[in-house]
Amino acid sequence: MDEIDVPPFFLCPISLELMKDPVTVSTGITYDRHSIEKWLFASNNDTCPVTKQPLLPDLTPNHTLRRLIQAWCTVNASHGIQRIPTPKPPVDKTIIQNLLKDASGSPNLQLQCLRTLKSIASESQTNKRSIESAGAVKFLASVITNTVNSCLDDDVELELKASVADEALSLLHNLHLSQPGLKTLLSHPEFVNSLTKVMQRGIYESRAYAVFLLKSLSEVAEPVQLNNLKPELFVELVQVLKDQISQKGSKATLQTLIQVCPWGRNRVKAVEAGAVPVIVELLLEYRERKPCEMMLVVLEILCQSADGRAELLAHAAGVAIVAKKILRVSTMANDRAAKILLAVCRFSATPGVLQDMVQLGVVAKLCLVLQVDSGNKAKEKAREILKLHAKAWKNSPCIPGHLLASYPTSA
């Protein structure tokens, strides 16, 4: 290919590779189906990559261009160019609807249906959208809910039903549902509770898929839906974090906690589930920027409650590891860590806590924040903390005197 001049209009504007299945979008530009589907559906874009104009999701096969490309491949076969195969057309929605109708029976029929749908979905993003629009989301939610609940019974088909639930979860995850599809899941009674049960006793893959779905659902849920989350869900989210089933699973769990904890009594539920000590232990272990930032965000949210601050102070390394992350991760992490320390100093600053902050080097770190490039927000919070307790820390030998000299000892 490097030695042959490929006609420019044979190349996809996104991948810059020879198009195998050219399709034309509503703006008149032609792309390779795989590339534009990834742009539209996997990356959730709604504009044309070339013209930047709003884009409809309709893709029209460009048969004329495909035949020209195939003819060009045939002519250049002596140069090692292989003829592109005629692409398989997207599946018709009626076929999917009939498949769903036939699956409303035994677990064996459901399992067969799910595996067929999974195969269809793997062929293209367009097929995934067709599966979603054909009503498969409600079907999958019902399958998961009914199967998970029936698995509680002493049933000879227990293993088969568990396989059905696992396949349904896998398919839901791989569909990369649109926002309306996710809201359909949220409207299904008991679906979130079913995900909690999957996380309690499911296999590794199913626990991961459940967390990924919860993360997506939390991003589109209404406040009233987030307020009604049960304590058991938080117990399982914390357990997933503790088990470290995968990096992606941990990231999705942290993102879910960030989404749901600001609402209602969810902070308390997360604290009671043991989130604070688990996150502190993970902060001791992790050095990567993104995970540390997310952990500090969750910890800052939880420390807005008295119980959260108490749990942080109860952990021997709690305050110390928060301070240690300052100036070692990112400007954003500096701000979040300083915000956690400010909450402690405002509302939970007993004489013992203040003394510990000196001995652990926390106060010295705050002084350093004022002297280096740590971000304006972190500097403001560090200055406020030092001002709040200047009297308690005034004579500490580890703190440069000139940094606290401007703060009144009556503070």
Automatic annotation (TrEMBL):
Catalyzed chemical reaction(s): S-ubiquitinyl-[E2 ubiquitin-conjugating enzyme]-L-cysteine + [acceptor protein]-L-lysine = [E2 ubiquitin-conjugating enzyme]-L-cysteine + N(6)-ubiquitinyl-[acceptor protein]-L-lysine
The protein's name in its UniProt record: U-box domain-containing protein
Keywords: Transferase, Ubl conjugation pathway
Domain annotation U-box: ranges: 5-79
UniProt superkingdom: Eukaryota
Molecular function GO terms recorded: ubiquitin protein ligase activity
One of the GO BP terms on file: defense response
Keyword Transferase annotated: yes
Gene3D superfamilies: Leucine-rich Repeat Variant (1.25.10.10), Zinc/RING finger domain, C3HC4 (zinc finger) (3.30.40.10)
EC number: 2.3.2.27
SMART domains membership: Ubox
Function statement: Functions as an E3 ubiquitin ligase.
Pathway: Protein modification; protein ubiquitination
